[in-house]
From TrEMBL:
One Pfam family recorded for the sequence: Adenylsucc_synt
Name of this protein: Adenylosuccinate synthetase
Record HAMAP family: Adenylosucc_synth
Chain positions recorded as GTP binding sites: 12-18, 40-42, 304, 330-332, 412-414
Taxonomic source organism: Streptomyces mirabilis
Signal peptide from the UniProt entry: none
Length: 427
């Protein structure tokens, strides 16, 4: 069973970095397939804490080859500062591979992201401001710049000029900003070419050959199912496909090679940025989840919106990703509540609805229907097996499993690598 996908089952920040790092020791390749440095994946190894944005979490495991696939958007300045930061801490990053087909986040894409959000005002998406949406827009509009373009100055210049022709009209005439000079952009991009060169590779060929040799490949999703451009809460989404299908298009590995799809699922729910969130808590319980769970964005430092677990969303994630397993994270954060409400269905315009409505208007009107599950007060952070958990914590996990449609194969009881209960092995 060589290829596994690990992805966010909610609105991101479920603990994908920790889960990827945990499996890193048993896999040969860890591949990011979409998104860019809008991600913030935290990995805690012993007393060391790492925040990864663009690099796959497998970079912290020496035996593992980290890969940035064709579906990722790469900001070279961020890439180098992340690599430098890791090198300074003694992490060897020399095995990194980057697809020559991955698109580059140019300085003008970052500018357009920021001015567009400002222009939208109250209707803003609450993006991370990292240029993600505009870069994917350029890719789809066929005016994007790819990593391989850095190695042909004449093509690069033509492409940057073409992209800026329209953007400068927008920037100067609509947004009242200064025009961006193509020559300067080309010069900056060419400045990255030499240092990038050793990493650039035919990652499609390498990954498929590795799978033929029965090597284990792990795809690490950024963001989450409900932030997916097709399957998420559009328009309050990111501009890529974090869902399982994205692992194929974003890497060039076919779906027949994928044997497990693991959804990372927080024991409650969080969201950053704008958009509907039926179980959001604007009271002291929400404040307590944020405080105890340390729910502050790794990328933008924004407070995360917090709420109870939503089983409707978990079922939806199982369906659109074909999940085989869940990795339930942050169960320890729920310790101390006498009762824990879990959303089992929605009420929409007076009707009980069991599944996620496809209509945005309906979803905006969805009110959670809660079932209260008994809580526990014992410290669970030292639990090593399912039977070490208090009875009520076991019942909470079982109830979530029954409602969510896939087996829970691991449980996080703390941020560290070893603060995990493994139930079914993934590899
Ligand atoms: P990602 O974007 O999905 O990788 O998740 P983030 O790193 O943005 O946010 C998850 C946060 O929860 C990080 O601070 C992790 O260190 C932390 N974390 C992960 N799993 C657990 C867990 O089981 N318990 C606790 N208490 N923290 C966890
Ligand atoms: P990880 O991988 C949580 C959210 C932003 C915004 C929307 C669009 O750490 O789970 P974008 O900059 O992507 O155009 O912003 O998506 N968002 C995330 N929320 N975790 C993330 O990544 C996110 N990446 C983007 O807050 O609402
Ligand atoms: Mg995150």
């Amino acid at each position: 069973m060589p290829a596994l996908v690990l992805l966010g089952a909610q609105w991101g920040d479920e603990g994908k970095g920790k889960a990827t790092d945990l499996l890193g020791g048993s896999v040969d390749y860890v591949v990011r397939y979409q998104g860019g440095n809008n991600a913030g994946h935290t990995v805690v190894v012993g007393d060391q804490k790492y925040a990864l944005h663009l690099l796959p979490s497998g970079i912290l495991t020496p035996e593992c080859t980290p890969v940035i696939g064709n579906g990722v958007v790469v900001d070279p300045s961020v890439l180098f500062s992340e690599l430098n930061g890791l090198n300074e801490r003694g992490v060897d990053t020399s095995k990194l591979l980057i697809s020559g087909n991955a698109h580059i986040i140019t300085p003008y894409n970052v500018t357009v992201d920021k001015v567009t959000e400002r222009f939208l005002g109250k209707r803003k998406i609450g993006t991370t401001g990292r240029g993600i949406g505009p870069t994917y827009a350029d890719k789809i509009n066929r005016v994007g710049i790819r990593i391989q373009d850095l190695y042909d100055e004449s093509i690069l210049t033509q492409k940057v000029e073409a992209a800026l022709e329209v953007k400068n009209q927008l920037l100067t005439k609509l947004y009242n900003r200064r025009a961006i000079e193509a020559g300067q952009v080309v010069e900056e991009l060419l400045g990255y070419a030499d240092r990038l060169k050793p990493y650039v590779a035919d990652t499609v060929l390498i990954l498929n050959q590795a799978l033929e040799q029965d090597k284990v490949v792990l795809f690490e999703g950024g963001q989450g199912t409900l932030l997916d451009i097709d399957h998420g809460t559009y328009p309050f989404v990111t501009s890529s496909n974090p869902t399982a299908g994205g692992a194929c298009t974003g890497s060039g590995v076919g779906p027949t090679k994928i044997s497990r799809v693991i959804g990372i699922l927080k024991a409650y729910t969080t969201r950053v940025g704008s958009g509907p969130f039926p179980t959001e808590l604007l009271d002291e319980d929400g404040e307590a989840l944020r405080r105890i769970g340390g729910e502050r964005g790794v990328t933008t430092g924004r407070d995360r919106r917090c709420g109870w677990f939503d089983a409707v969303i978990a079922r939806y994630a199982t369906r659109v990703n074909g999940l085989t397993d869940f990795f339930l994270t942050k169960l320890d954060v729920l310790t101390g509540w006498e009762e824990i409400p879990v959303c089992v269905a929605y009420e929409i315009d007076g009707k009980r609805v069991e599944e996620l409505p496809y209509s945005q208007t309906d979803f905006h009107h969805a009110k959670p229907i809660y079932e209260n599950l008994p809580g526990w007060s014992e410290d669970i952070t030292k639990a090593k097996s399912f039977s070490d958990l208090p009875k009520n914590a076991q019942a909470y996990v079982k109830a979530l499993e029954d409602m969510s449609g896939a087996q829970i194969s691991a449980i996080g009881v703390g941020p560290g690598r070893d603060e995990t209960i493994e139930i079914n092995s993934f590899i």
